[in-house]
Amino acid sequence: MKRADILIVGGGPAGLTAAKVAAEKGLQVILVEMKKDIPKITRTCAQIFYLEHIGGGQTYIKPVRVEMESGKKSRLVFPDINFAVEYSGILRACYDWRNLSPDGTCVYTARNKLWGFVFNKEVLLKGLLDEVQSLGVAILSGTRGLNARNTGSGVTVEIKESTGEVRSIEAQHAIIANSVNSRIVENLGLNKSRQSIGGMTISILGYIMEKVECPYPASSWISFAYPSLSSFINIWMGPMADGTWQVGTTDKTPGSPVEIMDRFLCTSHFAPWFKKAKIIHKTACSITPRYPIAEPVVGNIMIIGDAAAPAETWTQGAMACGHQAVHAICEENMAQYAVWWKESFLFNSPEYYRDLARYPALNVFFNDDELNYLYGLIKDQVVHNIPDELLRHTDRIKAENPDIYEKLKSIQNISLEDTFKSE
């Protein structure tokens, strides 16, 4: 095989976008992807193109927009970097973000406000894959990236093919875009300088379901704070582009998200929604959260997208990473990418971890009845941050429920590590 200008490991949004941009510039590109069926989604993913900061866990903070015209493909647009990706699938607008307590008391993060679009990620990836194939990118599917190292004349990437054969490929540059649990990142030694968040692995489970009798419109994202079921991260539910719903749960290992899911669907206050529902597809993934890679460029090797992030960069962030990485290579200014990386993602700032720590803290410190009481204080209000809003009611809470008041005070300065380590 001819020596490549760029070898890309990972065929998700970041890797495929990088391959597309590089091939359009006339570069010789090889793309390595572990999955044989590259567009198929097996990892749990909300599949949302966010238009603005909403809820917790904000990642990509640069402007984006969606352009739609009857009879034509939609365009996912990144105006600050003068880039767009075409998308031929269904887009489902999201207007409401509902946060529900165990008894169904609702507090809104967004209400009657367009904050994003649910899209079909398999359609998006298939479109990108078709483009890169038409541009002549060499694709090695069913192939794992094992390691990468800089050489005097470029890089060498070690791969393992589906046959079990291990071999090396040389290229001028390598882009590593193969998920948050990247083996190459580990083998490069980049995780040694990354502090683990809570020192644990998190398991995530998603069920795609039809015939869900949700009382809310399919433009709603729903977050369930339910401490007796999940004393960690909220259970969540959102629409899919095809009209089905996805329900997701998370647990710290060795806990079981399957058990949380079963109890939520069968015995919770919301169980009637799922009485006639049918599971048509299951997804899962696990991550070991670490703080982001501060310097994602090592010689001629670039770490982009989720591979350099605590958990995820969102689909839009991943595509932007692919675009910017190739531009930095073409301009022979790799340091430029590192600067852009630090400026474009909120998880590179302390604010991200402050907000992220407080959401699980509600489930950690309060029981079901206490959360019903707290949500009742701000029922049907639109609030950006529930813990911060509750702190505005401390005088009333102190008078009515001193024990809850003391618990609420304790989460003001809680760290993400403390939240993750809480039982």
In short:
The chain has 423 residues and is of the alpha+beta class.
Topology of helices and strands:
Elements: E1 4-9, H1 13-24, E2 29-33, E3 48-50, E4 65-67, E5 74-78, E6 83-87, E7 91-94, E8 96-100, E9 106-110, E10 116-119, H2 121-134, E11 138-141, E12 144-151, E13 154-160, E14 166-176, H3 183-187, E15 202-210, E16 220-224, E17 235-239, E18 245-252, H4 257-267, E19 278-287, E20 297-298, E21 301-303, H5 314-330, H6 334-344, H7 350-365, H8 368-377, H9 386-390, H10 394-400, H11 402-410, H12 416-421
Parallel strand pairs: 1-2, 1-14, 2-11, 8-16, 14-21
Antiparallel strand pairs: 3-10, 4-5, 5-6, 7-10, 8-9, 12-13, 13-14, 15-18, 15-19, 16-17, 17-18, 20-21
List descriptors:
423 residues, alpha+beta, FAD/NAD(P)-binding domain, D-Amino Acid Oxidase, Chain A, domain 2, 3 domains, seven-stranded mixed beta sheet, 12 helices, 21 strands, 29% helix
Written account of the structure:
- The mean pLDDT is 93.
- This protein has helices at 13-24, 121-134, 183-187, 257-267, 314-330, 334-344, 350-365, 368-377, 386-390, 394-400, 402-410, 416-421; strands at residues 4-9, 29-33, 48-50, 65-67, 74-78, 83-87, 91-94, 96-100, 106-110, 116-119, 138-141, 144-151, 154-160, 166-176, 202-210, 220-224, 235-239, 245-252, 278-287, 297-298, 301-303.
- It is globular and about 70 Å long.
- The strands form four sheets. Strands 1, 2, 11, 12, 13, 14, 20 and 21 form an eight-stranded mixed beta sheet that branches.
- It has twelve helices and 21 strands.
- Helix 1 runs parallel beside helix 2, helix 5 runs antiparallel to helix 6 (334-344) and helix 10 (394-400) crosses helix 11 (402-410).
- The chain has 423 residues and is of the alpha+beta class.
- It has three domains: 4-47 and 120-195 and 290-347, FAD/NAD(P)-binding domain (3-Layer(bba) Sandwich); 93-116 and 198-287, D-Amino Acid Oxidase, Chain A, domain 2 (2-Layer Sandwich); 350-421, no CATH class.
